[in-house]
Design brief:
cytoplasm; 4 strands; H-NS_C_dom; 121 residues; 2 domains; two-stranded antiparallel sheet; two-stranded antiparallel ribbon; mainly alpha; single chain; H-NS DNA Binding Protein
């Protein structure tokens, strides 16, 4: 017989043995888990909520895949950089507004809409 066939038959025998051991130990393991859950007051709902908990013994763990909370920055208004003929304004950030895109497509340079005077306080 070839080595491959021998290995495959050994794998099959070992998988059967592992399956038999698992089925024998299953009830014992479930009983142990139930005892631990009872001792610590753990419910099925607790297990479903945390799924995978990491951390050292005695310290609360983190939920796997959870991202740390982001600190929100305070948003400040940006002064307008461009002003259209009908009073529309644009800060120059983000997508070009339709009113300006239309005027540029019509042949007018974007620089002609720059706000040159200082904003009044």
């Amino acid at each position: 017989m070839s080595k491959l066939i021998d290995l495959q038959s050994q794998i099959e025998k070992l998988q059967k043995q592992a399956s038999e051991i698992r089925s024998k130990e299953f009830n014992t393991t479930v009983s142990e888990i139930q005892q631990l859950m009872s001792a610590y007051g753990i419910t099925v709902k607790d297990l479903q909520a945390t799924k995978a908990v990491k951390g050292k013994a005695g310290r609360p763990g983190k939920v796997a895949g959870a991202k740390p909370a982001k600190v929100k920055k305070e948003k400040t208004a940006v002064a307008a950089k461009y002003k259209g003929p009908n009073g529309e304004t644009w800060s120059g950030r983000g997508l070009t507004p339709k009113w300006l895109a239309t005027l540029i497509a019509g042949g007018q340079p974007k620089e002609s809409f720059l706000i040159t005077e200082a904003p009044q306080a």
